[in-house]
Amino acid sequence: MLAEKLLGVIFDLDNTLVSSSLNFEEIRASLGCAKDIDLLDFVDALPTEQQIHANNSLVEFEVSDALNAKKLLGTDQLITLLSELDIPCAIVTRNCRQAALIKMQNNNIAITLLLTRADHKAKPAPDALLHLAQLWQAPAENLLYVGDYLYDLQAAQNANTMSCLVTHGETPDYANLANIVVNELTELSEVIRQIFIREAAGVSG
């Protein structure tokens, strides 16, 4: 359950709002990145010429994936609900902006505020989440970050926001780090709806 009053929701993009079939083993092999090293950290540490080549290659993989991305179950329902409740939304992704915009535009994702790895240090760093807290003039603990992977939960922890893990039916061993664990976004919509129904009843009663 949410620990604090909800004043804003931030979404991961891949496998949270839209599908992704990025093959990270293939990407790592093509760039020569070991499994135990963060891919973006690896690219950032390369000499300038190699870094440019690696970044271009990474963008090619991401854009190719973006062209086939499909909207996931419950995405529209949840975004509509948050709009009705006047709760601001944003997307924070490790994707490049080009790929993220393709995914959002092709799938009519009705969120205008997008932060990518070009805007802030990538997750699990808290920078993008803290930027949104400042932008929305809301305490970080009143924001909810929704994602499908460990980095999402770590970013939420590092920023002191609440977190929701979307499992798609496969619960990982780090699920205990999340405030809320759901199979799909439809379940999160119901959780948020019930919270606001109870709050309204408490005010009126």
Question: What features would you describe in this structure?
Answer:
- The protein is 45% helix and 11% strand.
- The chain has two domains: 8-19 and 71-204, Rossmann fold; 24-66, 434 Repressor (Amino-terminal Domain).
- It has helices at residues 24-31, 39-44, 48-66, 75-84, 97-106, 127-136, 150-159, 185-204; strands spanning 8-11, 89-92, 114-115, 143-147, 162-166, 180-182.
- It has a six-stranded parallel beta sheet with strand order 3-2-1-4-5-6, sandwiched between helices.
- It is built from eight helices and six strands; from the N terminus they run βααααβαβαβαββα.
- The radius of gyration is 17 Å and the shape is globular.
Question: Which secondary structure elements does this structure contain, and how are they paired or packed?
Answer:
Blueprint: E1 8-11, H1 24-31, H2 39-44, H3 48-66, H4 75-84, E2 89-92, H5 97-106, E3 114-115, H6 127-136, E4 143-147, H7 150-159, E5 162-166, E6 180-182, H8 185-204
Parallel strand pairs: 1-2, 1-4, 2-3, 4-5, 5-6
Helix pairs in contact: 3-5, 4-8
Any key phrases for this structure?
globular, 434 Repressor (Amino-terminal Domain), alpha/beta, 205 residues, six-stranded parallel β-sheet, 8 helices, single chain, Rossmann fold, 2 domains
Major pleated sheet: 6 strands, parallel
Mean pLDDT: 93
The CATH superfamily of the largest domain is: HAD superfamily/HAD-like
CATH class of the largest domain: Alpha Beta
Rg, please? 17 Å
Number of helices: 8
What sequence of helices (H) and strands (E) makes up the elements?
EHHHHEHEHEHEEH
Strand order of the largest sheet: 3-2-1-4-5-6
Gap between N and C termini: 22 Å
Q: Within the CATH hierarchy, at the fold level, what is the topology of the largest domain?
A: Rossmann fold
Our estimate of the beta-strand percent is 5-15%
Structural class: alpha/beta
Structurally, the number of domains stands at 2
- What does the oligomeric state look like here? single chain
Q: How many strands?
A: 6
Percent range for helical residues?
40-55%
